[in-house]
Amino acid sequence: MSRRLMEIIAAISGTITLIGSIIWVITAADENGVVHFEGNEMYVYTFLVLGLIGMVTGSIALKATNEKGDKINKKTLISGVIFAAIFLVWRLSVTL
Description:
This protein is mainly α. It has helices at 3-28, 41-64, 74-95. It has one domain (3-95).
C-alpha cells in the first residue's frame, strides 16, 4: 500500500469519526446537556470502533513518514499497530 493512500484513509476515517461523534453528542444530549448511554450503546460502540480504526491507520501513516520509499512495508505496519496499542493502553491506564 502506498503512503499517500494510507494518509488519505487515515484523514478520512479520523474526520468522519470526529464530525460524526460531535453531531451525535449534540443531537443525543438532553436539555441539561447530558448524554444518556442507555439505549445508545450501539452508537457508542460504533464510534469507539471507528476511533480505533482511525487511531491505527493514523499511527501507521505517522510511522510511514519516516520511510524512504513510497510503499509501506511490514515492519512499518507492525510498528504502527504496536504504537496504537501502546497509546490505547496508556490512555486506559490514565482513566482508571
